[in-house]
Specification:
It is a single chain. The chain is mostly helical and 131 residues long. The radius of gyration is 52 Å and the shape is rod-shaped. The N and C termini lie far apart (162 Å). The mean pLDDT is 90.
Length: 131
Amino acid sequence: MIDLLIKDLDKEMTEAETEEKNSQADYEKTMVESSAKRAADAKLLAQKGSAKADAEAALEGHKERKADAGKELMATEKYISSLHAECDWLIQYYDVRKEARAGEVDSLQKAKAILSGADYSLLQKSLRGGR
């Protein structure tokens, strides 16, 4: 009976040692895997941080270009507005300017004729008398 108890005790101790070795091996394997995962996560975190910094820099660049484009657009709209006002003025006073130009051309032609020796004195008398 004691032999049987000793045998059972040896068997249980052998099983416990085997189980302890297996557990230790599993633990070491888990620690190696965890260490590798931590290293991979740290590398991924560094890559994502770098990508975030690049994206933020690109965003700042886009914001600056947008602001510059907005200023350019405002300047262009202001220029178009001034052109529109100028064109409106030209259209509004076209007839007046046309008559003034025609009068100037007529006056220049008469002045040229006078300088060439034409006599408009008779014409002026007949125009005055016709009124």
